[in-house]
């Protein structure tokens, strides 16, 4: 036996690539076939990000999960039928055609179950997903039991492996992804309207049924195109994770779609590059791990919805409320000692609200003004609840304590105006509320 071949058969792990190999792969200088696969995977990521954003807004993400699993019996059935008829059973167009037919059948069955039974959507999706995937596993075992050489590599459609792709396979995948991107961008306006206001879309003449069918068709295209690169189990992650990560960063649809496409492109590019450098690593898993890493960073570091930003805002609000309580108490009772720990006393001194760090320190001019403002807000909101919300005076303290610290100037002016229009003087109203 050839020593090189024997070594390749016994090798169970990937060799660590050199720095030169890494740079060549990332800069698209590692050969035509590898470059074609990386570009196709990047286009797939863009398509999955765009279509996934619309699926997320239209609440069709779980349907994509069922559809991806429903493609397995189509792939295996197409393989068996092609073998029986004497065709090339591993022909990618034939296998993708079977996957498309099977996926469409799965989605059709979901809608049939929803239309003719009382089952909810999650139950219908779970039924179709599990049954179709079970049929596919059975057919796959039948194929493997025949022990034909043409069946080799068929399991790549389950987990994905870009290293097993040929140039023509990459061109087909990239073409399907590009077509999906083009269609989605052409009808982006109509899809957006249907996602946010279906009633308005119907009034303006947009056929919502057609738009829903188009979204499902685009999901089918993305799912089918990514089977060999990402695998049918993990392709749904490419439709869900990028838009979910992008949602942390923006509230605007166009920015959401753009960021989702960018995250998908980064995931597809680096995932396929790693798979090219380490052929034994499933591309689907690596691509999804890249997307998952971006999702975790987005969840933690996004400026508005990120976990860190929320912790900072909540901590800041708690500190602000504690400081406001101290300032209001010192404003009403200047002779009392400050009941606060050293940290709060340091913050009061640093903000210029107190004259020293001691518990008996007095308020500065700035501290008196802030205390007076908090006290005034307290009285305004308390009187508003009593006079206009019909809340008994004995029940307003809890609500006032929660709201008085977040009143803005515009709301304060409105409260003052409404109290004046009611014929009540602010100082008199405050005395009544206190009594």
Q: Which CATH class of the largest domain?
A: Mainly Alpha
- The total count of strands amounts to 0
Identify low-pLDDT runs: 1-10, 428-435
| CATH homologous superfamily placement of the largest domain | ABC transporter involved in vitamin B12 uptake, BtuC
Kindly estimate the percentage of residues that lie in beta strands according to DSSP.
under 5%
Mean pLDDT: 81
The number of helical segments is 21
Which geometry do the CA atoms define? elongated
Per CATH, the architecture of the largest domain is Orthogonal Bundle
SSE topology string? HHHHHHHHHHHHHHHHHHHHH
- Tally of distinct domains: 2
Rg value = 31 Å
Share of residues in helices: over 70%
Q: Terminal Cα separation, in Å? A: 101 Å
Largest sheet: none
């Amino acid at each position: 036996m050839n020593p090189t071949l024997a070594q390749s058969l016994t090798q169970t792990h990937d060799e660590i690539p050199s720095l030169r190999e890494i740079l060549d792969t990332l800069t698209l200088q590692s050969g035509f076939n590898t470059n074609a696969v990386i570009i196709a995977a990047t286009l797939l990521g863009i398509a999955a990000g765009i279509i996934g954003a619309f699926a997320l807004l239209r609440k069709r993400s779980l349907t994509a999960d069922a559809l991806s699993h429903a493609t397995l019996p189509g792939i295996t059935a197409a393989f068996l039928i092609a073998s029986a008829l004497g065709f090339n059973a591993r022909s990618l167009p034939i296998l993708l055609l079977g996957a498309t037919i099977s996926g469409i059948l799965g989605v059709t069955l979901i809608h049939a179950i929803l239309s003719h039974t009382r089952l909810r959507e999650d139950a219908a999706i779970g039924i179709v997903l599990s049954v179709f995937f079970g049929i596919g596993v059975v057919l796959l075992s039948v194929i493997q039991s025949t022990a034909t050489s043409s069946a080799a590599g068929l399991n790549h459609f389950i987990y994905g492996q870009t290293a097993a792709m040929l140039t023509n396979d990459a061109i087909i995948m990239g073409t399907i992804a590009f077509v999906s991107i083009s269609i989605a961008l052409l009808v982006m306006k109509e899809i957006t309207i249907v996602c946010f206001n279906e009633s308005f879309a119907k009034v303006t003449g947009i056929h919502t049924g057609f738009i829903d069918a188009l979204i499902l068709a685009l999901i089918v295209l993305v799912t089918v195109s990514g089977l060999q690169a990402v695998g049918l189990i993990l392709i749904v992650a490419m439709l869900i994770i990028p838009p979910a990560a992008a949602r942390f960063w923006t509230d605007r649809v166009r920015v959401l779609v753009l960021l989702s496409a960018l995250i998908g492109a980064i995931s597809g590019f680096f995932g396929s590059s790693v798979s090219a450098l380490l052929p034994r690593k499933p591309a689907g898993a690596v691509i999804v791990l890249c997307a998952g890493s971006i999702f975790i960073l987005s969840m933690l570091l996004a400026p508005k919805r990120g976990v860190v930003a929320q912790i900072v805002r909540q901590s800041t609000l708690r500190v602000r409320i504690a400081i406001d309580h101290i300032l209001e108490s010192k404003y009403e009772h200047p002779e009392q000692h400050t009941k606060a720990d050293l940290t709060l006393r340091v913050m009061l001194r640093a903000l210029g609200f107190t004259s020293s760090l001691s518990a008996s320190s007095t308020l500065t001019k700035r501290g008196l003004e802030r205390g007076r403002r908090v006290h005034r807000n307290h009285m305004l909101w308390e009187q508003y609840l009593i006079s206009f919300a019909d809340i008994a005076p004995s029940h307003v303290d809890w609500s006032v304590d929660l709201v008085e610290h977040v009143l803005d100037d515009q709301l304060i002016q409105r409260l003052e105006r409404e109290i004046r229009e009611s014929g009540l003087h602010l100082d008199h109203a405050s005395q009544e509320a206190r009594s």
